[in-house]
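Office hours follow-up: a student asked to see two folded examples consecutively, so here they are.
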Amino acid sequence: MVGNIVIAVANIVASLLKMFGQNHWLPFVLVFVCANSILAGEELSPTALVASPDGTKVYVACGTAGLVKVANLANGDVLASIRVSPHPTGLALSSDGHRLFVTCASPKSEICVVDLARAKVTAKFAAGHTAMSPILSPDGKTLFTCNRFNDAISLLEVATGKELRRIAVTREPVAAAITPDGRHLLVANHLPAGRADQPPLAAVVSVIDVAAGRVVKELRLRNGSGSLQDIRISPDGKYAVVTHILARFGLPTTQLDRGWMNTNAKTIIALDRLEVLNTV
């Protein structure tokens, strides 16, 4: 049994080397953390990860285990396992690397605040239904969370955990990203809203003006876009990229392989004018 697991892990690592190249360390650390836990009889279900500011460690949220694993990036060794509330879904690390904010999903979700020097939870904030994708403002004073099944974004005061505001968005927010200047929060809505038999049938990215506390624009993706998964902003702050599924339901169903009906896609957004550029 152990031999089979080791062979399976080796095959995964070989595949990742082909996919990401020799210097892309995050996938390998995730594999080794999971492999060590499998050998130890743990069930993890990794859901999110974030690297430390100095690049020496990675923190991995484990949904089934209710843990955050801390791994050494140099060799993949697990340095610590931090117990949090059940079903952790997302991680946000303070800019100084001292505190980790962990969204833990339930109908009445919690956000665990972890003191990393002590490797323990020191505070818990209340959140909405199925909280995920925590995002810190550039000044570190505000924490944004996606409350998926409330169709809303919570703005929390980091110092107190108090909810300052809740902003309604389109449908099932699952990921968010904030522009470097802190002006706009971009929210990926998982599914399209409205009827499924009337075009356009596509999910949207909600653009929130943080100071005004409201949605100022909805960026509709290409027709057939849904199941949005993540959104990230380029280091130069010029573009955002959304990952999602592109359904080709307008084509006759003559084959299913090679993405004929559904394919993975990413949509690129120009942030200077808040417009969709292209879907690839």
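And the second, which I mentioned at the end of office hours:
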Amino acid sequence: MNRLAELHRQARADCCPIRLLRLAAAWLLCTACGCFGAAAWMALSHGLRPLLVTWPAALLTVAMFMVWLACARYGLDPYLAILFVAPAMFALGYALQRFIIGPASHGKDNGILLVTLGLSIIIENALLAAFQSDTRTITTDYSFRVVELGPLLLSFSRVVGFGVTIATTLLLWLVLHQTDIGKAIRAVAKEKLGASLVGISVPHVYAMTFAIGCACLAVAAGLLMPSFYVSPKTGAAFVLVAFTIVVLGGMGSIPGALIGGLLIGVVEAASSLFLGDSL
């Protein structure tokens, strides 16, 4: 019996690296897809507006319901739905910031926090009234497809999500560093008064920043829906982790948010392997 127990422990030790690798890969993909939008929104907003964790959660949930409606009602593929949901979320984000949050807050940080808190409560309860508390999912031809990479068995939808996340992060970095609006965003984040003195419209920059962040949430929603569910409170499952990622990667840093997400994925995978999922 002792010999059998010893062999069993040895077998578990031998397969531990492979198990850890599998779990780490799965968590990396899940973290990248689920937290990308909220982390990008927070990284963009830092330096421009105070952060309210519940606010991107409500908007992520709105984007996920929009993707679900596009798929369930109109038969669109969730990845194709991103092409329609992202512009809609961009317009919604611009309108919210330019015509509601900006005027109602009077430019004060406390006012911004109160207005966004109130809007998040309104959005969450509106979704609850419209869709009830039931969870909704999307079934596609590739929902249960897996990709074999050596010893790894990875979900196809999460592999696609990981690739799109990397590409979108790179695109976002290029927008911030190579375009006029990106330079304006960084200028306002550094010195709002100085930017306004050289002719930059600060309210417009605020609204564009908010709109770009909402478009990132739409991308995350489209990547999530093939392998996740949506309910009026779904967004909260990702935003707290996204806030941790942004702090870990450096407030205001887009590459840092990506690296922070990868690190969080590895840590969660290792913790679930050695400490168990019940924690």
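Two things to take away from it. Residues 1-32 have pLDDT under 50 and may be disordered. The chain is about 75% helix and 5% strand.
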